[in-house]
């Protein structure tokens, strides 16, 4: 049976692409595309499009209410494709890995199961991109192995952060020994 030329070409391209992806996974390397739609040449970050469907769920955090029952915030964290597999194999986040944390205000109500808090209004996103090579040395949002930025819910393309030391890193100081990430809160990273 003879296949038309266009079909043979499509099969060949598909096989080459699949082989390259498999080799990247086997080598533990993060695919280069992971941060391509998140970082521009100057190191400006943005919230990646379609992260909820393209990225892997890393885990969730509930921030307790200042008083009373329930939570005041819910954080849902996503990792770019392949990040979890590489971390589980190497114990390190691969260069180009993107982490996206959604921060929601909550609504707390009584339900049949008890007092329940759920994510309500999106407040914004915190985006981090792994960069052990220091590719943006003059950019104040890059350092200590990461690019760091906060984005308000109505501005996913423009960060309000001006310096990662003062705007971002303070919350991560207790996690410095684990590459600034609270890995103990993400069971999916365990072997």
Describe this structure in words.
The protein has 191 residues and is an alpha+beta fold. 20% of the residues lie in helices and 30% in strands. The chain is built from four helices and six strands, in the order ααββαββββα. The protein has helices at 5-27, 51-54, 83-90, 164-167, and strands at residues 56-64, 71-79, 98-111, 114-130, 142-143, 146-152. A six-stranded antiparallel β-sheet has the order 1-2-3-4-6-5. Strand 3 (98-111) and strand 4 form a beta hairpin. The radius of gyration is 20 Å and the shape is globular. The N and C termini lie far apart (47 Å).
Question: How would you summarize what this structure contains?
Answer:
The chain is an alpha+beta fold. The chain contains four helices and six strands.
Shape: globular
**Helix amount, in percent?**
10-25%
Query: What is the number of strand segments?
Result: 6
The number of distinct helices, counting runs of at least 4 residues, comes to: 4
Radius of gyration (Å): 20 Å
Mean pLDDT: 86
Q: Runs with pLDDT <50, length 5+? A: 6-33
Give the spatial strand order of the biggest sheet.
1-2-3-4-6-5
The helix/strand order is: HHEEHEEEEH
How many strands, what sense, and barrel or not for the largest sheet?
6 strands, antiparallel
Structural class: alpha+beta
Q: β content, as a range?
A: 25-35%
Q: State the separation between the terminal residues, measured CA to CA.
A: 47 Å
């Amino acid at each position: 049976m003879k296949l038309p030329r266009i079909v043979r070409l499509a099969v060949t391209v598909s096989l080459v692409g699949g082989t390259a992806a498999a080799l990247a996974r086997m080598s533990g390397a993060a695919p280069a595309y992971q941060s391509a739609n998140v970082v521009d040449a100057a190191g400006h970050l943005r919230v990646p499009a379609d992260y909820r469907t393209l990225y892997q769920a890393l885990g969730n955090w509930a921030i307790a209410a200042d008083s009373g029952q329930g939570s005041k915030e819910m954080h849902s964290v996503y990792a770019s494709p392949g990040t979890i597999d590489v971390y589980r194999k190497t114990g390190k986040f691969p260069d180009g890995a993107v982490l996206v944390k959604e921060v929601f205000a909550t609504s707390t109500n009584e339900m049949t199961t008890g007092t329940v808090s759920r994510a309500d209004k999106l407040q914004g996103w915190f985006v981090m991109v792994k960069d052990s090579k220091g590719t943006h040395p003059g950019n104040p949002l890059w350092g200590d192995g990461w690019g760091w930025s906060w984005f308000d819910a109505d501005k996913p393309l423009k960060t309000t952060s001006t310096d990662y030391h003062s705007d971002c890193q303070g919350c991560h100081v207790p996690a410095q020994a684990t590459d600034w990430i609270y890995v103990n809160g993400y069971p999916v990273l365990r072997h």
